[in-house]
Amino acid sequence: MVLPDIVTVDLQRVFFSLLLWSLILFPSVDLLAQDVIDATDFFQIGQEAENGLAAEKHSISSSRMPWIEEYELRTETRDFDIDRQEYTFRVSPSTGRKRRALTALYNHQERAPDFEAQESSCDDLADRYYQWLVLYLMDRELDILNRLKVVLDDRQLVLSRQAGNLDFDWSKLIGLRQDISDFELRLSRLKTVQARINKELGLKDPFFSFEGFISLSEIGEAFPGNFKKGLDPKLDYELATVAHELELEKAEQKQFFDFAQLKYQGPHTDELQERFSVGLAFQLPNSGDKKLKMRELELEVQSLRKEQEVEVATDKEVYEAEVAGWLIEYEHFRFMTATHRKEQEELRLISNQLKKKEGFNPLPLLAIQERAIRNELKLLDVSTDLYQSYLKIRERGGELCTATSGELLR
C-alpha cells in the first residue's frame, strides 16, 4: 500500500523531530564539559570581592574614659608683686557611672554601621535574586520555544506541500508566517536579556543548573507564614544612641563631687598666713537645663519606640495584604493549570481518533500540539508574575538581605 504524500511528509517530519530532540536531550561532550553554575555558585559571584573589602576595614578597639575629666592650673599676682605669685592646681574627677556611660556612647558611635554600604550590598543581593529568577524563567521559556519551533516548522512544511491544491486557504500560510515572526522576536528578546545578564556578571557562555528551584506549589504551601521583618537598622541605631545619651545625662545628675584643688600662696612676712591649702568642692545638681535635657531625651526615646511600633504594624498589615493577594492569584494559576490539563487530555483523545483514519491530514494534530505548547507559555507568563510578586514580598520583609545564598529560591 502506498501512503499518501501528506502522511509521508508527516513521517519525515517525525524523524527530523526525533533527531532534534536527541540533540536537545543529549548535548555534545563539549557542552557537558562546561562548568555548571548552580544557585550556590551564582550567589557567590562577587561575594569574594565584597568579603575582601570588609576584611580590609580596621577593627575598632574599645576605649575607656579617664578618671580625671579636667586638669586646671591658675596663677594670680597680688599687688603686681611677682615674688608673691599665687598658684592653684585643680582637678575635676569623674564617677564610675559616668565613665561607663561615656565609654558605652563612645564605642557605640565608633562602631556605627555603614548604612550606605549595607543598603548597597542589600540592593546588589536583591538584584542577584531577580537575575537568577530571570535566568530560570528564560531557561524554561527557551525549552518551550524550541518545541514550538519544531511544530511551526512542521506546519510550514505541510502547508507548503498543500499550497498546490486549488482549494488551498492562503490565509493559513500568511498566519503561519506571522506566527514565525512572533516566535523569532520572542526568541531574540530572550537571548538579548540573557547576554546582558551574562555580561553584567562577567560570564561567557555559562551553563546554569536550576535543580531544586522552588516551585509555586512550595511557595503556596509556605504562605502565609509568620511575619518576620526586623526593626529598621537606622531607627534601631538612633534609638540606641538616644538611650546612651540619656544614661549619660542621668550619670551627670549623680555627680556630686565637683573638684579638688591645691593652692600655693607666694612668700610673705605673715607667718600666721598659710602658704599651702587643699580645697574640695561638692555640688547638688539642680539645673533646669539639665532636667529639660533629660526630659527631651526621654520623650525622644518614647517617640522613636512609637515610630518603631507603627512601622512594624504597618509593614505587617501590608505583608498580610500582599500575601492574601498573592494567594488569590495563585489559585487562578492552579485553575488555569487544571483547565489546560483537562483540555490537553481531551485533545489527546481526539488526536488518537484522527490517527486511526487512513490518509489523515496532519494539520489538526499539529494544531493540537501547538495549542498545548502555547498553553505552557501562558502559564509561564502567569508564573512569572507570581514569582516576581513573591520576591517583592520577601524583599519588603527584609529577607533578601539575610538569605545571602539564594535560599529563598530553593
UniProtKB/TrEMBL annotation:
Residue ranges of coiled coil: 287-314
Keyword entries, A-Z: Coiled coil
Annotated protein name in UniProt: Outer membrane efflux protein
Native source organism of the sequence: Neolewinella agarilytica
Higher taxonomy: Bacteria, Pseudomonadati, Bacteroidota, Saprospiria, Saprospirales
